[in-house]
Amino acid sequence: MRAADLASPYPVVELSTPAVEAARLLAEENLPGLIVVDEQGRPRTILPGTQVLRMGVPTYCQDDPALARVIDEPAADVFLRGLAQRTVAEALPRERRELPVVDLKATALEIAALMARTRSPLVAVTDKDGQLVGAITLDALLERILPQ
Questions:
Q1: In angstroms, rounded to a whole number, what is the distance separating the alpha carbons of residues 114 and 120?
Q2: What's the whole-number average pLDDT of the chain?
Q3: Deepest in the core among 6, 19, 123, 126, taking most CB within 10 A?
Q4: Which domains, ranges and CATH numbers included, belong to the chain?
Q5: Global pTM value
Q6: Where are the alpha helices (DSSP H) in the chain?
Q7: % helix / strand / coil in the chain, to the nearest 5?
Q8: All residues at 6 or more sequence positions from 139 whose CB lies less than 8 Å from its CB, including other chains
Q9: Binning pLDDT at 50, 70 and 90, where does residue 80 land?
Q10: Share of the chain above pLDDT 70, in %
């Protein structure tokens, strides 16, 4: 089984996309992450949903989870409102990571190895020119390769 057999259309965002829009897309489509594309439509990086969430959670609550408990419930329920003024570019991890991208000829094992190595539940699939063709999620890969 090759990436061409596994890839399906997948939503993308750009660096300038508002972070709250990315969060809505993640929630509405039940996605593990988003593919961030450049101006030519080529995959630039994968934005895990947890990174969008991380941007909305106050740093002091990430550093000391006990502090999150002292925030009253009405305030805790609206913590993501801070995403409204921020972009996808601001949500990206600071460190450069290996880009989880494969070409159409990649095998299921190559895709699985890339997901495992990059800890990404999402792999972008590109054609020979580097243009995005679609994506493969961990769920979709497992459904196809697990024995019945």
A1: 8
A2: 87
A3: 123
A4: 3-145 (3.10.580.10)
A5: 0.82
A6: 3-6, 19-29, 49-56, 59-63, 65-70, 73-76, 88-91, 108-118, 138-145
A7: 45, 20, 30
A8: 32, 121
A9: low
A10: 93
Using a 10 angstrom Cβ sphere, with 0-12 exposed, 13-18 middle and 19 or more buried, the burial of residue 119 is exposed
Tokens of 56: 């909305």
Tell me the two tokens of residue 11: 């939503």
| Residue 72, SS3 per DSSP | coil
Q: Is the pLDDT of residue 76 over 60?
A: no
DSSP state of 8: B
- What's the one-letter identity of residue 76? A
Tell me which H or E stretch contains 101: strand 101-103
Buried b vs exposed e over 87-101: b needs ≥16 C-beta within 10 Å?
A: bbeebbeeeeeeebb
Amino acid at 2: R
Candidates 104, 102, 103, 109; CA nearest to 141 is 109
- pLDDT of 78 higher than 90: no
Query: Is there a contact between 132 and 104 (Cβ–Cβ < 8 Å)?
Result: no
Q: How far apart (Å, rounded) are the C-alpha atoms in residues 78 and 72?
A: 11
Please compute the mean of the pLDDT values over residues 28-38 and round it to a whole number. 93
